[in-house]
């Protein structure tokens, strides 16, 4: 197996194995950075996928965590390892019959490789704010689309934000298990 694909296969196996343990709610997601010359500082051309697990209170507040893998499509070889992130997932949802809307904030730490950004690999902070809208496919499965903005800021080995600070629009889809 090609070296750059091993982390992706490992993450997919981990996500699949942990999916039944999400508890109150959880999701598998896929997203991508979208080019918007008027609202970005660097074209990343990356995809990201992973999982979210969270509990939903009676008032609709979401609290949990996430893990994701970033793969870069900007190199001649498609889908090379770009980084791994994980952290806290916060949100507020509104359910109106079969329709679900939410606003979410993801904050975490990760590692980026030399395949993303302008420099060698770094320990980085990631943040993403997005809104989502979806509908229930069944009593326990929901299909959702999301869109927002994602930021990645280096922490180490360079001084914070000295090597890079990216902010790019994102969109994606997710399948959520809910109880």
What's the gist of this structure?
This protein has 179 residues and is mostly beta strands. It is built from one helix and eight strands.
What do you see in this structure?
The chain is mainly beta. Helices cover 7% and strands 60% of the residues. The protein has 1 helix and 8 strands; from the N terminus they run αββββββββ. It has one helix at 6-18; strands at residues 25-33, 46-56, 61-72, 80-96, 99-112, 122-136, 141-156, 165-178. Strands 1-2-3-4-5-6-7-8 form an 8-stranded antiparallel β-barrel. Strand 2 and strand 3 (61-72) form a beta hairpin. It is elongated and about 50 Å long.
Keywords summarizing the entry:
mainly beta, eight-stranded antiparallel barrel, 1 helix
Oligomeric state of the chains in view: single chain
Distance between the termini: 38 Å
State the shape: elongated
- Unreliable stretches: none
Major sheet characteristics: 8 strands, antiparallel, barrel
Helix content: under 10%
Listing every helix as H and every strand as E from the N terminus to the C terminus, the arrangement reads HEEEEEEEE
- Rg calculated over all Cα atoms: 16 Å
């Amino acid at each position: 197996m090609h070296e750059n694909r091993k982390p992706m296969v490992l993450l997919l196996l981990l996500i699949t194995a942990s999916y039944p343990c999400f508890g109150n709610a959880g999701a598998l997601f896929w997203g991508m950075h979208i080019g918007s010359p008027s609202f970005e500082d660097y074209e990343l051309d990356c995809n990201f996928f992973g999982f979210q697990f969270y509990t939903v209170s009676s008032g609709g507040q979401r609290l949990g965590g996430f893990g994701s893998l970033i793969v870069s499509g900007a190199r001649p070889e498609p889908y090379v390892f770009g980084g791994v992130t994980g952290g806290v997932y916060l949100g507020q949802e509104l359910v109106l019959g079969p329709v679900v809307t939410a606003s979410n904030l993801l904050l975490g730490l990760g590692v980026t490789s030399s395949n993303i950004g302008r420099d060698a690999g770094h320990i980085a902070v990631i943040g993403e704010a997005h809104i989502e809208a979806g509908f229930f496919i069944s009593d326990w499965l929901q299909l959702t689309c999301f869109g927002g903005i994602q930021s990645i800021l280096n922490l180490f080995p360079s001084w914070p934000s000295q090597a890079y600070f990216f902010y790019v629009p994102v969109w994606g889809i997710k399948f959520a298990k809910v109880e």
